[in-house]
Amino acid sequence: MIHETTIILFAGEGGQGVQTIAEVTAALAIGKGYNATYIPYFGVEQRGASSIAYVIISKGTIYYPRFDDADIIVVMRERALKDIKRFITPNTDVIFDSSTIEAKDIHKIATKTIGFPGSKYALTKFGAKSYNLLVLGVIGNYLGFDKTELWENVFEKLKSKFKSKEIEEKNKLALEFGAKIVLEKGEYSKAEFKADLGDKLYRNKEREGIIKPSLCKGCLICVEKCPVGALSKGSEVGFFGANIPDLNIEKCITCGICKRFCPDGAVAVEKR
Amino acid sequence: MIETMPKCWNQKTKPHFFCPGCGHAIILKQLGFVIDDLKLEQEVKFFIDIGCSLLAWNFYNFDTVQTHHGRTTPTAVGYKMAKPKKVVIGYMGDGGGYAIGLQSVLHAAFRNDPVTIILVNNENYAMTGGQMAPTTMPNEITTTTPTGKEVKFGPGMHGPELIRNIASDKAYIARTSMSAPEAVKIAIKKAIKTQIENNAFSFLEILSICPTNWKTDAEGSFERLKMAESYYHIGEIPPQKSSQK
User: Fold this and answer.
1) B20 in contact with A at a CB cutoff of 8 Å?
2) Residue B64 belongs to what H/E stretch?
3) Distance set, CA B20 to CA A54, A234, B213 (Å)
4) A266 CA to chain B: closest CA distance, Å?
5) Which helix (H) or strand (E) holds A72?
6) Among A3, B7, B105, B198, which residue's Cβ finds the most Cβ atoms within 10 Å?
7) Contact call for residues A26 and A54 (beta carbons, < 8 A)
8) Would you say A121 and A131 are in contact if contact means Cβ atoms under 8 Å apart?
9) For residue range B19-44, what is the model confidence (pLDDT) as tens digits?
10) Residue A8 pLDDT
11) What gap in Å lies between CA A96 and CA A12, rounded to an integer?
12) Cβ separation of A48 and B17 shorter than 8 Å?
C-alpha cells in the first residue's frame, strides 16, 4: 500500500539485485502516476560490503532523494542489518528474508517485522539468479501493484539480460511466485539457508586443500586457471553471495596455481 | 593448517576492498610472497597513490603511506633520503603514474633515486568508472570511448620505454604481465634487489585486469589481457648502447 509519501530502503548483498529491485519499484510507481526517486548508495564500502538503495514514492513533490527514517525497509542478508539500524523508527515495517536472517537478530533492532522465506524458494525452485525477481514479486504485492504490470516493467528493464526464452520464462515464474508468497507475521521460517562460512577442507592420502567461503568473492579465476580442471564452480554461496568453487581433490596435482592467482587468499592446496 | 595468504598480509583486514577478480590483489599477493622470501617485513615502507591502488592502505603488516594524486614517487624519494637503509616501494596505477604523476616518476628516474616503483596498468581509470586513460590501446572500448579509442587520441602510452630514455644504465626498467604470476614475482624481486644492492632506480610496469570496468568474466579478462600483452612489449627494457650516462 502506498500512502501520501512512502519511503523505502532496500538493503542486501552486492550482486543480489538490490539496485534492480529498487529501480523497477520506482519506475512502477511513476507508471502509476506517482512521483518517485531512486538513488543507489556508492562508496568504497560498496566493494564487497552491503548494497543499499533509497526509494521515495510520493503524490507531492520530492525535494531530496535521500532520507534518515524509512517507512519500509527490505533487508535481504544478515550482514546488511548493521547498515539499516539507523533508518529504523518505531513505525518502520521491516520486511526480511526469514530463510537467511534469524528472527531473534531482527527483533533486537526492530519492532514491526514481516518475514518471507525468499532464499528458500529461490534456491530450491528457481536458482540463485532468480532471487531478485522473487523479492520484487513480494514487494510489488506488498505495495499493491498488479503482477502483469510488474512483469511488463521488469521485461522492459531486463530484456537484454534474458539471453534465452527459457531464462525469461523462469524469471517470470519466480516473479509470479513471489507475488503469491504469504507474508509471515509473528511466526517465521527457520533461517536454514544462512550461508555456511566455515572453512571447507578436502583431504586424501597425498594432498589436502582448503577453500574459505568467508573470503571468496566468486571471481572464479582459480577455476579458469586450474590446469587439470580440479576446481569447478560450486552451488554453495560464500560471504559475498557469489558461488564459491568446489575442489575435486582426486584430480588435483598440487601445482599451487590456484593459490598464486587467488586475489583474496581463499584457496590453497598442499602435499601432505 | 594450510596458509592461503603471504605472511606479511594483514589478516585482520581481509576480505579486502578490491573488486572480485581484481588484478591489484593478485599483484599485491606476489609482492607479499617476495617480501616473505626476502624477509624484508621489518624494512619495507609502502607508498600508495590515489585511485584503486589506495585500497591497499591496510593490506600489509608493514607501514603504508598514502599521499596525493601522482605524488607517491616524491614522497617515497623523500622518505628514502631521510632513512636510506629502509626499502621503499611506491605502488600506483597507470593514471597516477603516467597521467598526473608522470613528471614525478621521470625526475626520480632522471636523478636515479634508489626507490622501487611498481605501476599497475589496467588501461583505464578504474576507480572513477573505467574512462579512457593514456594507456588505453587503439580501438579499445572504455566508458568514454564507446566505439573504441580513436586515432586522434594517440596510441597507448609506453611508459617504461619513455623512462628508459633518461634513466641511468644501472636502473632496472621492465614490463611484465599478471597472467604469469611467477614472472611477476621474479621481476619484483629483481626490482627490489636493484634498490638494495645497486642503490639505483627501479621501475616495473605490470599489465593487469579489471573485470568490473571491462565487464568481463575470468575467461574474458585473460583474453583481453592477451591483447595488451601483444600490444606492449613484455620483458626488461635494456639501456641503449649509444647512451652517454
Assistant:
1) yes
2) strand B64-66
3) 25, 16, 12
4) 6
5) strand A72-75
6) B105
7) no
8) no
9) 889 999 999 999 999 999 999 999 99
10) 94
11) 10
12) yes
Residue B242 has pLDDT above 70, yes or no: no
Nearest CB neighbour to A268, from listed B4, B30, B218: B4
pLDDT at position A149: 83
Q: Does A220 contact B182 at a Cβ distance shorter than 8 Å?
A: no
Residue at A78: amino acid letter: E
State how far residue A64 is from chain B, nearest Cα, in angstroms.
24
- Complex ipTM, two decimals? 0.90
Domains and CATH numbers, chain A: 5-180 (3.40.920.10), 200-271 (3.30.70.20)
- Evaluate whether A117 touches A97 at the Cβ level (below 8 Å): yes
Q: What is the CATH number of domain B43-236?
A: 3.40.50.970
Give the Cα separation of A247 and A189 in Å (integer). Answer: 32
Distance from CA of A6 to the nearest CA of B (A): 32
Residue A240: list chain B partners with CB under 8 A.
15, 20
What's this model's pTM, rounded to 2 decimal places?
Answer: 0.78
Of A48, A260, A268, the CB nearest to B15: A48
What part of B 52-81 touches A (C-beta under 8 Å)? 55
Whether the CB-CB separation of A8 and A59 falls below 8 Å is answered with: no
In the prediction, which pLDDT does A43 show? 55
- Where does residue A228 rank: exposed (0-12), middle (13-18), buried (19+ CB within 10 A)? exposed
> For residue B22, what is the DSSP state?
-
**What single-letter DSSP state applies at residue B136?**
P
pLDDT for res A46 = 46
Confirm if B74 and B36 have CB atoms less than 8 A apart: no
Grid cell of A148 as nine digits:
502483469
Inter-chain contacts counted by CB atoms under 8 A, chains A and B: 81
Phi first, then psi: what are they for B46, rounded to 5°?
-115, 125
Given an 8 Å threshold on Cβ–Cβ distance, is B15 in contact with A267? no
- pLDDT less than 70: residues of chain A: 1, 14-16, 42-49, 195-196
